[in-house]
Amino acid sequence: MSVLTPPPPPGKRKAWTYRPVAAPPLADFLAGGEARQRFLRYWVRDNRGNLFDLAFFFTFRMVPAVRCSHFGRWLGRVLVPRAYVGPMQRARANFTVLFPDRQPDAIAGMVDAYVESQGRQMVEYSAVTRLARRPGGVCHVGVEHLKECRDGPVIFMGLHLSNWEILMQCLSDLGLTLSLNYDPPRRRGRHWIVRYVRTRAGIALLPPGRQAVRPALRVLEAGGQLLVFCDEGFNGQIRAPFLGRPANLETNYALVARLARRTGARICPVYLTREEGVRFTLTILESFDLTCASASLLDDVERLNAIVEPLVRSHAPQWYFIDNRMVS
Predict the structure, then answer these.
(1) HSE of 214, CA atoms in CB hemisphere, 13 A
(2) Which helix (H) or strand (E) holds 22?
(3) pLDDT tens by residue, 194-228
């Protein structure tokens, strides 16, 4: 007679500490060997990419916002299928898993929409403010729900749909004072661009990684507003939403639940979708608190996933992490 072994408890993600790469000193170059290679990699090879990123960003700041986006659409169609073959294959496979009833032509159409979305979002970094404030460019839905978020702490639960930089600019323009924890891009030039765009939008950037937890607590304990993106790709793997996989505690869902429980903060889901071209819809859902005292942390996580997952499925071609690995 066999004995069934109970499944292990859902895991808890190890704390991630952000450590920026230290700039190698000239002594490394003079030392030769691996030290010299490290010096040349940091100051020469990497900086070629950094200079290209910065030149691209500032050049397109001089281009009309609509043309920036349209160029991004063209660039996505031309560049992404050729330069990112592996991610394209994963995206197609993920669409097939998420939509098993769709015909191949429909899946191909979703892939095309995905590459266009990726291209637009990349170039739109140069035009975030102009697109967010373009007359008639962003339709606001559910703004009335912000009334209950003005007093007391609130955690805005965001998604990486269409262009989340425009989402942040729109929220800031609505009078919100947001603090954000974030995962820095690896390339230093792109990290600088991200910080530049977000700080100009009025977003207060918390330290990346585990260093953000204490400042986030202080923000909420002071009655402030925190923005946490709850859909995640980490090391090339989709962490959240769960998309039919067992729930676990290795996501920002658990962070949001812990912070909300500890500070009494309300949770308000917000997201931005692209309707067509450079027309967007900002949606603010009704906020809520985690009032059920008997609920476990895993219960809270499943509740948050039940909000996020249908939104990601509904707008999958606009989802940034659709090209990550979906591991069960």
Answers:
(1) 1
(2) none
(3) 999 999 999 999 988 778 889 999 999 999 999 99
